[in-house]
Structure formats: C-alpha cells, structure tokens
C-alpha cells in the first residue's frame, strides 16, 4: 500500500478511535453495575451487565492504546510505513475484533439486518437505554473501521510471510 494512503488511513483511524474513546469513557465513568441493574432485575441482568461493562472496559483500553500508538506515528518527522501497517493490523485484530466478538457475548452482530437499515446489533438481554445507545453508537465507528481496515484482516500477514518477515 502506498505510503500516502497508509498515512491518511492512520490519521482517520486515530480520529475514529478517539471518537469511540470519547463516547465509551464517560459511559463507563458514570455507570456502575449497581446503577445499571437497579437491584430489581435479577441474576440474569447482573450477569449481562457484568459482562457488558467488562467488554466495554477492554474495548476502551485497547482503543486508548491504539490511539496513543497512532499518535506517536503521526507526530514523527519521518512517517514509518512498516510500523504504521503493523499498528493498523493490531487495531483491526484488537479493537475491531474486541467490539464484534466480545468475550462475554452480551451482544452480537446479526448480518441479516445489515442491509435493511436496521441495527445489526442484537442483545442477549434487553439493556437500559444508555447501554443500548452506547453500543449502537460505537458500532457505527467500528463498522467503518472494519471496512477501512479489511486489508489488515488477512492480507497484511500473508504479505509479510511472503517477504520472510514475522
């Protein structure tokens, strides 16, 4: 991939991840397990929100680390294309994958809804309005990142192996 394309992709990826961080952080700072469950929804709600909060915290940390790495790349006087491609690969496999394949499976993407204009995210348990909104809002960001970084899903490592690198 040409250096100019990698640099612009690095910049747009950083901007999108910063937007996701700016949405996730206030939600996680302002909501706790007690505020989300309201003590009256039972054990299913407790399990759901524990998993959801855990998955969102992991996503936040992965995204913050990626924003920092991308920022360092963009601030350097000489743009390092090889390192940028490596970081974009990590963004795809850590941030995008962490969103679409959450460890606790509190939500999942149903591809049948992707082309209907409806939200493709389906929840295992009916979440509170704030919880639903945060997941759906950041899903748009991670869908765009997935589309833009699709090359890094498989082709990047194949290219590196062919060049004899790890």
The pLDDT mean sits at 87
List SSEs in N-to-C order: HHHHEEHH
Indicate the radius of gyration in whole angstroms. 18 Å
- Main sheet properties: 2 strands, antiparallel
Taken from the alpha-carbon principal axes, the silhouette is elongated
Distance between the termini: 18 Å
Give me the side-by-side strand order of the main sheet.
1-2
Q: Which parts are unreliable, with pLDDT below 50 for 5 consecutive residues or more?
A: none
Structural domain tally: 1
Q: Total number of helical segments?
A: 6
Strand content: under 5%
Helix fraction, binned, reads over 70%
**What structural class is derived from the secondary structure elements?**
mainly alpha
Quaternary structure: single chain
In total, the number of strands is: 2
Report on the structure:
α3 packs antiparallel against α4 and α4 runs antiparallel to α5 (129-148). It is built from 6 helices and 2 strands. The protein is 72% helix and 4% strand. The protein has helices at 3-30, 33-37, 42-75, 81-100, 129-148, 151-162, and strands at 107-109, 121-123. A two-stranded antiparallel ribbon has the order 1-2. The longest helix has 34 residues, at 42-75. It has 166 residues and is mainly alpha-helical. The chain has one domain (3-162).
